[in-house]
Specification:
Elements (H helix, E strand, L loop, with lengths): L2 H6 L4 E4 L11 H9 L2 E4 L2 H10 L5 E4 L5 H13 L4 E3 L13 H9 L4 E4 L4 H9 L6 E6 L4 H11 L5 E5 L5 H11 L4 E6 L7 E6 H8 L8 E5 L6 H4 L17 H4 L13 H18 L1
Parallel strand pairs: 1-4, 1-5, 2-3, 2-4, 6-7
Antiparallel strand pairs: 7-10, 8-9, 8-10
Length: about 290
């Protein structure tokens, strides 16, 4: 069997989005794919089993997480090469975004294994659209560092970003991140979307200082996304003037017309009358001497 024939028998890796809170947000295409695949890969056993149970699915389940990603990726790729169709899901939303799976995708691309993405709901886009901030350009900053010192540095850098910024964070770190943000950019407008898509979702607007005061005594531990307005554009510091040397015309590109001051022909050379007069006087003197 040729290598091309072997590739034609490969299975397909499906990257399937699942609801982020509301079970009705599953797509018909996602259900169709999850029903037909041989194996479903998930991050957490309990969450994955609950997802399959919700939609009356009984597919075999495998676990892919940060602890076993390197080793498990090889096993999954081997199954795909043997013709198994596999679906990758996460605890909620779109896989790979903030979950394990990138190494698997990269390995499949390297080995020419078919990949299909089944799109669906994401907390990122849900929060952005609801925030009311400009979203023609935005920066997804993901999860910030667990270490306080690194988190402070990250927020300081983000505070200078001109685009709208989106931050993900675990439920128990809402207050610490708001406290740090309130110290670095207290008057920056922000939005916090809590338990998005669920019947009891809540939305909170204000400056970071106001939001910290609101949540500092709260015991909130639900899912949330933080979106904040970009820094105002400062034309004096943000605009970079191109170097003047870049504006010089290369010598080879200078035309003759440019050299001649815009004229089609070169200027006429002026006659050197001084030298001619001098020569004429010398000739007259010689004639007089002969006489």
């Amino acid at each position: 069997m040729s290598k091309q024939e072997e590739k034609e028998k490969y299975g397909t890796l499906y990257i399937v989005s699942t609801p982020i809170g509301n079970d009705e947000d599953i797509t018909l295409r996602a259900l169709k794919v999850l029903k037909k695949v041989d194996i479903v890969i998930c991050e957490e056993p309990k969450v994955g089993a609950r997802t399959l149970h919700k939609y009356n699915l009984s597919q075999k389940m495998e676990i892919l997480n940060e602890q076993n990603e390197q080793k498990k990726t090889s096993e999954i790729v081997s199954l795909l090469e043997k013709g198994k169709d596999i679906a990758l899901i996460c605890d909620g939303g779109t896989p790979v975004f903030a979950d394990p799976g990138l190494i698997l995708v990269q390995t499949c691309l390297k080995n020419d294994i078919p990949i299909k993405v089944i799109p669906g709901v994401t907390s990122l886009m849900t929060a952005l659209v609801r925030s009311g901030f400009p979203i023609d350009q935005f920066l997804y900053a993901g999860f910030l560092s667990r270490k306080k010192e690194e988190r402070v540095l990250q927020l300081k850098r983000l505070s200078t970003e001109n685009r709208t910024v989106v931050i993900f964070e675990t439920p128990y770190r809402l207050t610490p991140i708001l406290e740090t943000a309130a110290q670095i950019m207290p008057d920056r407008r922000a939005y916090i979307g809590c338990n998005l898509t669920m019947p009891f979702e809540t939305h909170h607007y204000g400056t970071f200082k106001e939001l910290y005061e609101k949540f500092k005594n709260s015991r909130f531990k639900g899912e949330f996304v933080i979106v904040f307005d970009g820094a105002p554009l400062n034309l004096e510091t943000d605009f970079i003037e191109p170097p003047k040397e870049n504006l010089k015309i290369p010598q080879k590109q200078v035309t003759k017309k440019a050299k001649w001051g815009g004229k089609e022909k070169p200027p006429q050379k002026k006659k050197q009358f001084g030298y001619r007069r001098k020569g004429k006087k010398q000739n007259q003197q010689r004639k007089m001497n002969k006489k």
